[in-house]
Amino acid sequence: MTAAAIPDKDIGEQLCQTVRQAASEGAPLRIQGADTKAFYGRDSEGVVLDVTAHAGVVGYEPSELVITVRAGTRLAQLESVLADKGQMLGFEPPGYADGATLGGTVACGFSGPRRPYSGAARDFVLGTRVINGRGELLRFGGEVMKNVAGYDVSRLMVGAMGTLGVITEVSMKVLPVPAREATLTLSMPVEQAIRQMNAWAGQPLPISATCFHDDTLRVRLSGSEKGVAAAVAKIGGEAAGDNGDFWRSVREHRHPFFEDERPLWRLSVPQGSPPSMLDGDWLIEWGGGQRWLKTEAAAKTVRGSIADSGGHATLFRGGDRSSEVFQPLTSRLLELHRNLKNAFDPERVFNRGRMYRDF
Amino acid sequence: MSRAAETFTTGKQADREVHAKALRAWLPRHAVLDQVEELRPYECDGLSAYRKLPLLVVLPDTVEQVQAVMRYCAREEVPVVARGAGTGLSGGALPLEHGVLLSLAKFNRILDIDLVNRTARVQPGVRNLAISEAVSASGFYYAPDPSSQIACSIGGNVAENAGGLHCLKYGLTVHNILKLQVVTVDGDLVTIGSDSLDAPGYDLLALMTGSEGMLGIIVEITVRLLPKPESAKLIMASFADVEKAGDAVGDIIATGIIPGGLEMMDNMATRATEDFVHAGYDVDAAAILLCELDGTPEEVEDDILRVTKVLQRSGCTDLRIAKDEQERQLFWSGRKAAFPAAGRISPDYYCIDGTIPRKQIGYVLTRVAEMGAEYGLRVANVFHAGDGNLHPLILYDGNQPGELERTEELGGKILELCVEVGGTITGEHGVGVEKIDQMCVQFQPEELTQFHALKQAFDPKQLLNPGKAVPTLSRCAEFGAMHVHKGELKFPHLERF
User: Which residues of B touch A115 (CB under 8 A)?
Assistant: First the structure.
């Protein structure tokens, strides 16, 4: 599907009506964009609430570094609008399939290789419009960089898997595309790679991505011509051009590592954590902070392996989607989650059970 | 608001004695203050126009003591207001007459510094600047740097989502913390966020940040540390007209450079600070811009050249690059001293915190000047130009009858103007008690109702800092009715973006 094929349209009122109807009947809805993230989260029942028609750029001010788009807008279209002005989404979001929408990406809280160096999806969200479980269209945050009026509901929506409301519009901070990018490759064992990534991160270097797989550490540098050239000289290793294809393949999970029938786990751990002894294949990103694992090991084993590290594990793709795919919460945190769910969606209309079994 | 000195009423005094006695079961005697002269220093925060004597002040120094206080207050349904260093500018830590003021001042220890993972685990009473000082020798710093960083505490920074001079590039508090330990309203201890880059479940870390003490008591914070930039250079440019200076800011951003800091001051602000700290400012310029570029020495050299060209094209009348680190600090010292400098040229000043889209800067400053003239009040403007955060300082004399009231009314008008042009009533100081009426302008009733429901999820009995940050709908109805009656509310149904 080409980006240009999606017409701009505002179906906000229609979506509100559907939600009000569902709430009055207590009938669950499954919020759906391009349906490219169906693999993620828990299985969820309900009538599909299709938001893809709610699309289009509502406002874009390159000199303000802010863009506002409807949630059904395709990531690819958004990226091309920004690229025309020499700008980009700073969190380098993965789409995982053609047609992925911004709304789905934000609801899942997905961020790409640039995340530890520039920030996550939630860091770039400035404002949202959201339909709550009563079918009210609400606006939180805004289009300015700093805004502390009211609770930060916009960021709360990021990664909430649609369980608190339908995101209909998002305002985001955007960044200039760096003048130059360069990728370096270095051969080393995993322990050394983790130490190295963290040592670099402690220095003022223009690193924008790191990935370790198969005894090879790749580092991407982004910045001004001179800044990147100086960092290349400092880091050493072999130059691999800008290597855009490689970073795209990691971001989109098209790298050969991901071609594997075994369940895919995402381990989010403190960046300097030593490598796991757990059996399986590993690909390490985010300076050591995001570790992908292909394994048949039981959830208990995977989660047990990082229990003491301060990290958490998500059954990202495959495996039993009716199990708790996200790290179980402590009972008090779970209670707060339930209370928040009730505050936004008292009839439990949205994405029932998609995030945690309880709500 | 009552500014009159309070006297102890009999009923209140009885409550005070009962609660003080009960709380001393968990706290040392000296950690429960109940004498008027002991309570007096806590009657206001940085917004000193609002004062109220709390029922009691408690000064716990362990998490267990905080939990005990919260358990007791939850059971007795006594409201609690948390307070850090008391430097807040919106009255967020204004005490409640019938409430306990919970000071976290004794939580002043840095607990752990992890240089491998580049984090520091600190107690909430640690001063913002103390974190950077503790890691400076290792080449790190904590990025958010509100002007009050020498005094303000990190717990308060989290509660208000404090910003500073370097937000455009390095973010606000919410972008620079990883984990919190929070005592809930009923005394449980919960961990929010994690030592990793993200945490499972809802982003409660973002929700707690800037929640103004309404959702929980923060007792520990894990912050991110950044490596200090190798090189930082500061350009100071003068402009003969404010609008041109505003446009220059957009022109810099358009080159694809994100400056480490980008500040603007108008003529009244530069004159006031120049007299005070002698920073070498151009006191004849209508506005000056301070643009800091940081990074590797190679990057900075590049960027300085490019920004210099942009500023010249944008019509600056003078341009200076700080010749060394000492001069860079000197140039910054003026900006950081802008508030106290305003205090030297006027008996009192009132700081506004609206944020606007940058392209509106010319229009907004012109309107602010006009409105100031209408109210017969002088306004000096300092401006975090990079991120659109405006700090007009209204100069007034609190001893002149009616002048404070006029000042507050003008302040309210300026905030409504910020909303009108697509901005917000507060960029970094918080709503507190100060801007609570303007929340009615920024948000619709359904949105305010959603905020109340959200608070309910954490604090069903409304005991944490009640009455702050989010107005009740009836308060808004009163506020709106009053203004519509006077025919002053120009934009009753305005769009808020």
Answer: 197
